[in-house]
Specification:
Length: 344
Amino acid sequence: MKDISYLHVLLKMLYRYHLIGYSGFIRSVLSFFLLMSSLVTNTLAAPSGQGFVVGLLRPDGLIIPFAYFNGADFTNPWQKPRNFGPNAPSTITDLDIPWFSGFTAPTDSWFAWYPEGGKRLITKQPIKINSHCSEVWGLPTGEVKRKFPDHVYESTKTGLVTNKKIDVSPFSNISKSGADSQFILKVLRPFFDKGEEEALRKTGIDAYYENELRRSKGIVKSTGLQLMSSQKARLTAKESIFFVEVTKKYPKTSDSKDRECKLISYQKSWVLHAQKPTLLSSEFEVTDCDMKNVSTGKAIGVVRIKDLVYIVHMNIGYEGESYSIFRLESGKLKQVLETFGGGC
C-alpha cells in the first residue's frame, strides 16, 4: 500500500513538472498510469461498504463531488497544494485528476436528494468545468434544470448528491410570507439588535461601513428586519433546524458616497426548534448593496449516520465559494470539514 502511494506521488511530480519532456504520447501514457495509481491507492484506502462520496448538484446537471466519508469521518482524501497552510481548507480546484476516481465508477449511480424525494442519477465520464476563475472536476448527468453557457459559472446548487443511498433530509426554502418566516423573525429580532449594537462597539467591521451605520442609525429609519432567505429541514417528528439570513437596510446619508447603494446590516444564523427555539450560532456583518465583504450561505441537507447528525452547507462569497459539513451534537453545531470550491 505504501509503495503504491509513493509511486503515485512520483508519477504526479513527473507529470506536473514536465520532467519527462513534452511528448504528447508520453504525457498521455503518464496520465493513464497516474489515473490508475490513484484508483488503486484510493480503492485500497477505502473501508469496504462503509464509505461514500458527497457532492452538490448544479442546475445544469453537473455533480461537484467535494468530500468522502471513510466510515468514521468526512475527509478530503487528496493532497493539499503546497501554498496551502496546515489550517487552510482543502480545495477541489485545479487538481490534475478527479480525486473521486478511486471511490466511484466512471458511470456510477448517484442519488439526488430533493425536498420532494430522492432520485437515482447515472453519471458519465468526469470533465473539467469552470468554478469562478478556477476549474474543478464534475460528473455530467441527465438531470438538467437549467442550461447556461460554458463560460458562465452558476453558484446556485439545487441539491445534495451521494454515490450511496443513505439517510438524508434535504433542506427546503421557506416562504417569506408564511408562518415559519414570521416565527423565525420573532426569534431572531432580539439577537439581531444585539449584534448590530455590538458591531458598533468593536473594530472588527470595516471602518467605512461602521461610520456609515453610525450616521444612518441616528438620522434615517431602516426598512425593519427582513428575511433575506431561509431553509428548513426536519430532524425528527418534533424537531427542525433552520438556516436563516436576515437584513436591515438603511438609506445612506446625504453626505455619503454612492447614496443609491443602501447600507445593509446582515446576519446569518442556525436555529434549532424543538419544544422551544435555540440559537445555535450567528454571524453579523455590515455591508452595502453589492455585499462584497459578506459570505452568504445555503443549507443543503441533513445526513444521518447511525446516531450522528451532519449538516451540509454552502458558503457563497463575492469571488468564491466553499462547502462545509457540520456535526450537530448535544445542541451544538461544530464544523468538521470545509472544502474550497473555487474563486478569483
